[in-house]
Amino acid sequence: MKTQKLLPQVMGLTIVVLSLTGCSRVSTEPIATPTPNLPTATAVPPTATLPPPTATSLPPTPTPAPPTAPPLPPTGTAVPPTTTAKTRGSLQPLHFETCRALADALEQTLGIEMILAEAPFEDILREQSGTGCQITAGGTGLDFENLGVIDHALREMLPAQGWQEDISFAADGPGSMFAGFRRANQLCLLAVSSGPAEEQLCANDEPFATCWQNLTPRQQRYTITLNCVQDTSSPTEPAASLNTNPEANANSGVSINSFTAEVTDNVNGGKIVAFHWDTSGATSVRIFNGATFTRFGTWWTDLPPDGTLVAEITDTMRQNPRMDLFATDAQGNEVSQGISIEMPCEIEDLFRGNNIPPGTICPAVALETVAAEQRFENGFMIWLQDLDGGTILVFYNEGRTDSFADTWQAGQPESDPNITPPGGLYQPMRGFGKVWRENNLRDSLGWAVEEEQNFYGKWQRDNSPSPAADHACLVNRDLQLICIAGPISGGRWEFRQTPD
Length: 500
Prior knowledge:
The chain has helices at 6-18, 96-110, 147-160, 208-214, 430-438, 442-445; strands spanning 91-93, 115-123, 128-140, 164-173, 176-183, 186-196, 220-231, 255-265, 271-280, 284-289, 298-303, 307-313, 322-328, 334-340, 367-376, 379-384, 391-396, 401-405, 453-461, 471-475, 481-485, 492-496. It is mostly beta strands. The strands form four sheets. Strands 18-17-16-15-19-20-21-22 form an eight-stranded antiparallel β-sheet, covered by helices on one side. Strands 1, 2, 3, 4, 5, 6 and 7 form a seven-stranded antiparallel β-sheet that branches. A four-stranded antiparallel β-sheet has the order 11-10-13-14, with no helix packed on it.
């Protein structure tokens, strides 16, 4: 039952949790006994085609070498959380493997990166406190359709992981929802909130619904927080400890003896996969479909401890996708095992070929288009005529990217006569110039060091369901391969070697 009385207390706790600063990536060390107050996670334009810029000769000064960007950090880089004063109480973080498995499930479900850290935890219903394992993620309206979609996806994912909702915690508010989920002696508090990306986007006295309707997807901000504990004062209810290595969990009474898959072509397209599994000590089994082409993953649940499942998979979002089997015993102990099935992407990767690693998101159709490039003091711009009706990409030397719709049209001013560049430097013209002036890029990008140059460009991005998980590559005028990790606005870029 929803309760307005509980909401202020619950959301007050949520605000405290979300306002802690300083993130840490998923730690590679087990989470120890209450070490708390660890920092947690706190709480991007389209169209008119620009005629190809006229090619002009380079200025007499030598053309600068292409700017360089720092290499991208490895995916999933772990940073051990720092500790502060301990919080007293019987509630302690979940076992590390259980917490990491929950973070992986959230990441698969929502398609965005998760941040894992320890944080203070309070169960206001039982008046208990301690330290929780907190999983946090954020996104914009480009990542999520609305709050209800997130709520629905997580209310399917958590029960599939063996968690049951405790409706005593249920509370909703303008642009937010709160829920609690229990499993044995464990408790997770889920908070999902939405609001403007910047406070000044909404007036102080403006109703939330009115402000939200006037925000663009880029201006809408979503925050998802899942904080989980185990109650050490209830030894009769052992905490579930998910371990992806069955041998490491041999004493729990549940193990996976075998998990295989036979893959055949479907006459109607796609694949037919026959899963076979055999477990010991399990009372229930479920399989996660990592090939799904939809936004959220698919779970096959309520499967017997030993058996066969024949499934039809029409297409794949990932090259040779991974499938995971989870086996759970009566005490809530759980083990898992994953396999990759042979299922190539429908479209070949223009820059990496078909040899992309298993599980890699499949690419979308490649684009070959008229393009232009101009280099600046602190980066460069590339215009792609046929990308979303005309797009200008900005690459900063420090490795960040931006993208803007090309809205310049013939007949509009080509430059600003009131702007005089220093000697040997240039004011960008036409589409480049409009973006440069209207978005105050002089401070960050500097002056142009050459006039724009035409070339014929190639572009391909991943067919990702989430802009936050995008990966895109293009070839510049010097035939260098440039790849962007993350959304093209706000992602990170680097030069890469072209495939042999």
